[in-house]
Amino acid sequence: xxxxxxxxxxxxxVCRPSRAARRCAPRPxxxxxxxxxxxxxxxxxxxxxxxxxxxxxxxxxxxxxxxxDEYNYxxxxxxxxxxxxxxxxxxxxxxEAMLATKMHHIDIILLLxxxxxxxxxxxxxxxxxxxxxxxxxxxxxxLELAAKPELRAMLEKxxxxxxxxx
Length: 166
Hints:
Elements: H1 2-8, H2 73-82, H3 85-89, H4 93-100, H5 105-115, H6 119-128, H7 142-145, H8 149-161
């Protein structure tokens, strides 16, 4: 407390809007003492470049750059949770049953994505090497699970490229 009293009784050296400010001499304002202000850019700048100015997300290794064998259990579980299967079903039983069949992880994600009509995910994993002829636990193919016309067209094109008649 003693240090606080000493600090308050110190003479005013900086002008502040207070009672002690009346004792301070005003500083004259002259523009010659100010340096010219440098122009500033206050917007957001990115240190990476995507699209036509740089890399796209696939080349940068962010989305869609994985191959078939790079998908694993964690990807299946993440997609299962992301799409809300756990919330609606309450358990991981369906996911664990699909994994127990030794089906490839990317093919499990394909079946789940087709059942939810997730067109961007299906496009990504077909490009990564998912098998469009795989059958789920109920014996249905991704084409039978898909309901959206553009998703069905994408799957039919993938099947045709594998030589499977639709």
